[in-house]
What does this fold into?
Amino acid sequence: MNSPTTQVRRSSAGRRDRSPAAGLGRSGLAGGRSPRGERRFPVARAWWARAKGCWGWLAVPPRLQGFEFCDQPWLRGVWREAYLDCLNFLFRTTRLYDRMYQPFSCWARQAGGDRVLDLCSGGGAHLDTLVRTARAAEAPLPRLVASDLFPDLGQYAGLRARHGDRLDFVTHSVDATRPGLPGCRLRCLFGGFHHFPPARARELLRDAVEHGDGLFVAEVFRRTWATVFGSLPNLLLLPAAPFFATRFRLRKLMVTTLFPVVPLLVVFDG
It folds into this structure.
């Protein structure tokens, strides 16, 4: 009978070693043998692995946290007003929020609040659509309170005059991550959540959990290549925005229609 030492030496030198740990190659097969395709077509398999890795990028654009012109504090005066006019015109023309009152009304009813603070209200076109379509459908809707980091008080005053007790607004600047308005326990955010980088988005959600009773978030655009390239035709549509704005100014006509700088900013942000 051979000693254990002799058995180990014979096993390591033998051709038919069947121990589970010895003789395993990179492929996990005895003797280090690789699959036929990997041995014959290593370059093709490497390129196929790269292609599968790139498929996700081809199907869905990568999330790049850059900047948007509407978030810049230096975009003010006639430039911001023209920018918001373009957004309002785009939302009304494409009717993006025409059916949004249905899930929003259901959420507000279940949350049990009569006032909802709207964060990042922008030009307020979505609020106008919400109130108008809900009234036409006789759907219950809480009182909406518009707010923004750069509030358009003139536009909000016009919305309040149009809808009466259904809409109000905050006159001072409101940071969506820390609104600091205890009278509004419910919050909503339409088309603005993608503006926040991950860290700021977590702050927004954390504050809503700690100091609120509910948060309604709506994003009407998907992150697809069709959405990216589908915004380019808006360059032909947006120059007409000043003619449909509630406040017509010649300077807005110049920077939007005669020299379409503002439509370029909107399409870049979109």
